C-alpha cells in the first residue's frame, strides 16, 4: 500500500501542467487552444511570443525547469528516504506518463521531453549531457524542436548502452525504453509532419 501511494503521488505530481498554468497566470492565454495545443515549453514560447516575446522566453524556460523538477524532486525525496532503486525507476516512468497523460487534462498532456530528461538525469547524468548537447546542436541548425527532441532521445538510448551496458541495480534498460516509447508515441504527429516536411520551426 505504501508503494502504491508513492507511485500515485509520482504520477499526480508529474501530471501537473506547468506550461498551461504559467501561460494562463502570467500571459492570460490558454495554450491548449492555440499553436500546437501542447502544454510544453515549445508551445508556450510559440503562443506567448505573439504578444510578448520577452515574457514568452521567460515562461518557456520556467516551464522546462518545472516540468523537469516535478519528476526529479519526488524521486530524490524517495531516494533520501532509502527507497529501493526499482521503486525510484517506477516513479520516473510514472512521472513521464503523468505529464503525457494528465488526469487534470482528461488524460491529454505534453510530449514528456523535459520531464523525461529530468527523471533520467537522476540515474544517467552522462547520458543526459550527451542528449542535451545533441538537442542543442540539432535545435540550433534546424530550429525544429521535435527533431531536436527525437535526436536527443535516440542519443540517450545509444549512450545508455555505452555508459551503462549493465544497468546498475535494476539490470535492465526496460524503464528507459518505456519512457522512450511514451515520448516517441506523443511525437507521432510531429514525425508525420517531419516526413511531410510540414513541421513548424521555432524561430
Structure commentary:
Probably interacts with PlsX. Its EC number is 2.3.1.275. Catalyzes the transfer of an acyl group from acyl-phosphate (acyl-PO(4)) to glycerol-3-phosphate (G3P) to form lysophosphatidic acid (LPA). This enzyme utilizes acyl-phosphate as fatty acyl donor, but not acyl-CoA or acyl-ACP. It catalyses: an acyl phosphate + sn-glycerol 3-phosphate = a 1-acyl-sn-glycero-3-phosphate + phosphate. The chain has 203 residues and is mainly alpha-helical. It has one domain (2-195). The protein has ten helices and no strands. Helix 2 (18-27) packs parallel to helix 3, helix 5 runs antiparallel to helix 6 (113-123) and helix 6 packs antiparallel against helix 7. The mean pLDDT is 95.
Average pLDDT taken over every residue: 95
- Tell me the Rg in angstroms: 17 Å
Proportion in β-strands: under 5%
The largest β sheet comes out as: none
Q: How many individual helices?
A: 10
By secondary-structure content and strand pairing, the structural class works out as mainly alpha
Question: What is the straight-line distance between the termini?
Answer: 48 Å
Q: Secondary-structure element sequence?
A: HHHHHHHHHH
Low-pLDDT ranges: none
Number of domains: 1
Beta strand count: 0
Molecular shape: globular
Kindly state the percentage of residues in helix. Answer: over 70%
Amino acid at each position: 500500500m505504501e508503494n502504491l501511494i508513492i507511485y500515485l503521488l509520482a504520477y499526480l505530481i508529474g501530471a501537473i501542467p506547468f506550461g498551461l498554468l504559467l501561460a494562463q497566470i502570467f500571459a492570460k492565454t490558454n495554450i491548449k487552444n492555440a499553436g500546437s495545443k501542447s502544454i510544453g515549453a515549445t508551445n508556450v514560447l510559440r503562443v506567448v511570443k505573439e504578444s510578448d516575446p520577452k515574457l514568452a522566453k521567460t515562461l518557456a524556460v520556467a516551464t522546462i525547469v518545472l516540468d523537469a523538477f516535478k519528476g526529479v524532486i519526488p524521486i530524490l525525496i524517495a531516494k533520501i528516504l532509502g527507497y529501493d532503486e526499482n521503486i525510484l525507476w517506477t516513479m520516473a516512468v510514472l512521472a513521464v506518463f503523468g505529464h503525457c497523460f494528465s488526469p487534470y487534462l482528461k488524460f491529454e498532456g505534453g510530449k514528456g521531453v523535459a520531464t523525461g530528461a529530468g527523471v533520467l538525469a537522476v540515474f544517467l547524468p552522462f547520458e543526459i549531457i550527451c542528449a542535451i548537447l545533441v538537442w542543442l546542436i540539432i535545435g540550433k541548425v534546424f530550429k525544429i524542436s521535435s527533431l531536436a527532441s527525437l535526436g536527443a532521445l535516440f542519443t540517450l538510448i545509444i549512450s545508455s548502452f555505452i555508459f551503462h551496458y549493465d544497468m546498475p541495480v535494476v539490470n535492465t534498460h526496460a524503464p528507459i525504453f518505456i519512457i522512450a516509447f511514451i515520448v516517441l508515441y506523443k511525437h507521432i504527429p510531429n514525425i508525420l509532419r517531419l516526413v511531410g516536411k510540414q513541421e513548424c520551426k521555432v524561430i
